[in-house]
Structures are given as C-alpha cells and as structure tokens.
Design goal:
328 residues; Rossmann fold; four-stranded antiparallel beta sheet; 10 helices; 24% strand
Length: 328
C-alpha cells in the first residue's frame, strides 16, 4: 500500500435494525441507524466522525469491527471486504484493527490483572512464540503508553487504577497487537477534563511512533478541532459535511454544522458568538423525513428541501457539503 492510497474505504454503508411498530402489529419497520455512509481514511490519518448522540457514528465503528452486522455496502481494509470476511480473514483483521472503547471502567475485565488484560490478545491470536515474548511485548506496550515502570502495574487490577491509567491500559491492550488501524470511540469523554489532554497527546505520539491510523468517534467538536486531520459531520445516519478539520470548523457550510459549532465554548470571554439553537427533536430513525432529513429542524429551510434529497457538492478543496443552499 502506498501512503497516497486510503487505508480504509467505506462506501454506501447501511445498517438497519428490524423492529415491530407495536406489540400487536406484525408489520416490520426498520431503524435506519446508518443509511448510506461513505468515507475513506488515509494512511496515518486521524479521521473523525462527529455528531449528536444517535446520529449513527458509533454504529459505523461497531459495524466496521464486526460487532454489528451491516445491511449493505462495503468497507475495504488491506484488500479485505470487512463486511464479508472469511474465518481466516477475520483472524487477520483482528491483528490489524483494534478498538478503544469509551468507558475504561466497563471495557476492562475487573477479574483480570493488567498483565492478563494486555497479554490476552496475544494469547488468543497466537502472536507470541513463548511466555518470554508475551512478557516482553506487554512490558513494551505499558512503557509506550506511559505506565512506567511497568512492573508496578503488572499485578494491579482495574479498580486499583485511576480513570486515566485505565484508559492507558486499554490503549496498551490495543497497541500490543501492533495494529495499523485503531478505532477510538469517545476515548476521553469519560475522563476528567484535567487528564483528557494527556491521553490525546499520547495517541498523537503513538501515531508518530507506530505509524497508526485512527478512526476517531466523538460528539465534541472542541476535541476534534485540536486533534483530528479530517472531520465528517453526521446527522440521522448520514454524513452531511466532510473536509479538512480547519476548513469545516472555521468555514462551515451546512446549517447543522454551523449550529453545532455555534455552541462550542470559546476560551476568550470577550469573544461573542451568535448561537444557533435548533428547534424540535431529532426525528425518529424509523420514520426518516423525506428529502433532506435535516429540513424539519433547519433554520434556513426552503420548500424544495422536503422533496429532494441533497447531493454532495465541493465548496472548497476536499470540502464537501450535502446542501444545495449551503453557499447561497
């Protein structure tokens, strides 16, 4: 693979969950959690999916890692279609793609020591020749995530660690596989503000040291602004705007992106920003509005918005927006 090629290529991904309309009804409807998402992630890039809770960003991540079954579409990583992996391909895939979950209090087994947690992926996937190699790689991973000296932490259980230390153990457990891609689902949202910057800096350092690529999931545009290379804004199962992080945040075009950015706190108390408060609730993913799915809450809605589904247009280099009136 050349560095110009995307490491991960996702096209028209759909994830629909069947539901009954009522307890007595036999009619099936579908929760269209992800409804036609396309993006690519370049080698050593930090690509971010951002949006409100329920927009489908975590479902995208879980689907790519095989935790949720896709309805249709394709996702290619290292010439493997992630949605149609054979048993042997899935074993290979686990070696090159790992996940760091949101809550280190829940993602770590409380009955296992730090050594056992980090060593388990090596043992399950038979990636170490002997016990000495396992011990060596566990130690290296702990040192890489800043838990030094590693011997102090090896016999600790998760409850004996702070929140930041737990998330560093979770990152070490992913790193020990020496993956190419790490999917990070809100990796700092459960941590104290005071230690979030340290975890994000660690992830940046690990990218440079191990040539990692990240798919980063967050609802926090302030975090995305200072950490990711490109950002895709999701709303109700679809991407509505995507581009270079600086371009999207400093020059947003889609009304939804503008509304999200307008409520992000700024450090300078003298800076005045016009806030855009969206009216109403996010529509049900079972009953998606016709046309543009944002039109029911859009502050600049027009008559045609409820009739025509918007297509992407490029309004800047690599900056795409799904709104025909974004530049008017």
């Amino acid at each position: 693979m050349t560095q110009a090629q995307p490491l991960l290529d996702v096209h028209d991904l759909k994830v629909w969950f069947p539901v009954r309309k009522s307890l007595l009804s036999k009619t099936r409807a579908y929760i269209r959690a992800v409804d036609g998402v396309s993006f690519d992630v370049k080698y050593r890039e930090i690509f971010c999916l951002v949006g409100e809770s329920g927009c489908g960003k975590t479902t995208v991540a879980n689907t790519l890692l095989g935790l949720v079954k896709a309805t249709s579409g394709y996702a290619v990583l290292n010439d493997m279609d992630l949605l149609k992996l054979t048993k042997e391909q899935r074993r290979q895939f686990r070696r090159i793609a790992q996940m760091v979950f949101q809550d280190p209090y829940e993602s770590l087994n409380p009955h296992m020591t730090v050594f056992e947690i980090i060593a388990e992926p090596l043992e399950v996937n038979r990636l170490a020749a002997n016990q000495n190699e396992i011990e060596s790689r566990v130690t290296e991973s702990l040192e890489a995530v800043g838990l030094t000296p590693p011997q102090v932490f090896l016999d600790h259980y998760p409850h004996q660690l702070s929140g930041g230390q737990r998330q560093r153990v979770a990152i070490a457990a992913a790193l020990v596989m020496r993956p190419a891609l790490i999917v990070a689902d809100e990796p700092v949202s459960m941590l104290d503000i005071s230690i979030r910057a340290g975890i994000l800096k660690l992830m940046l350092d690990l990218r440079n040291e191990f040539n990692l690529t990240y798919l980063f999931i967050t609802h926090d545009l302030a975090t995305a602004r200072n950490f990711v290379d490109r950002v895709a804004v999701m709303y109700l199962g679809r991407i509505v705007e995507v581009g270079d992080t600086k371009s999207v945040i400093e020059t947003p075009f889609h009304p939804y992106t503008k509304a999200l950015i307008s409520v992000v706190p700024v450090p300078d108390p003298k800076t005045k920003r016009q806030k855009t408060l969206l009216a109403g609730e996010i529509p049900s993913p079972v009953e998606i509005p016709s046309g543009c799915r944002f039109h029911t809450r859009c502050p600049v809605v027009r008559e045609t918005c409820s009739k025509q589904e918007p297509e992407f247009q490029e309004l800047g280099p690599g900056h795409y927006v799904a709104c025909p009136f974004a530049n008017s």
